[in-house]
Amino acid sequence: MNLHRMIADLRPAMREGGRRLDRLPPRRIDELLLVALLYALAGILLGLYGGYHAGFEWLHSALRPLFPDLAWAFLTRLGDERVLLIVTLLFARRHPEIFWSMLLAALLAILYSRGLKHLVDAVRPSGIYPADALQVIGPRLRAHSFPSGHTTSVFVFAGVLFAFARTTGERALLLVVATLVGLSRVALGVHWPQDVLAGAFGGLVSAALGVWLARYWRAGLRPAVHLSLVILPLLAMPWLLYTDGGNPTLLWFTWPLVFAMLMQFVLDYLPWRR
Known about the structure:
Blueprint: H1 3-23, H2 27-50, H3 56-63, H4 69-77, H5 81-87, H6 96-120, H7 149-164, H8 168-187, H9 193-216, H10 223-229, H11 231-241, H12 251-269
């Protein structure tokens, strides 16, 4: 199958993706922004109550016994932007409108998260507490605490899926899982609660803007552009495999994930698909 045939083969899926964007209720974007405002309000109230570090000691000590350390490390890995980018191969071909929305949202989220991290340059818990007073799982990072990048990433992913989810239960589940990933950053001792709330806010706003942009700018639904963009998850695979995020025990998760998503790409895009 040559490139022209591959492009022709993608056209029906791209057209259907455009129709799904047309049918998307505008209230989904409003709902995302409303949930984002709730997280922002929680952050404001927490800050007024006790400042930037408010709630960390209580939440850290309350969360740690709930799950084994490996479970918290696994949850936090779900917020890794490379993991989430690779997982988009699950629906890149069948739901290209979601794939395109996520890439747009991710770009906005990177500007938000990276920009604030360097602008604020807040000190992490490891930079405040002595080593013997704070148990940290993974590397003891000290700088660029605000906002939580993992939380921002997972709320981008969950937020875009929220917009396209069919039922209230699915939308609620997405928010619960994303919140657990955010809480894992506090449980591991690498972020303050305010970082997590700011990450949730930024991720959801980025998701809402990404979906909104995808409705009006459909460049990513052109077959040739889509084929170029789908290379991005493939490029993330070796990057993920050869960095363990400070927890080498999670290689049991990353290697099977990469293999499964690579097979998904092969089945969806390569010539023997038909």
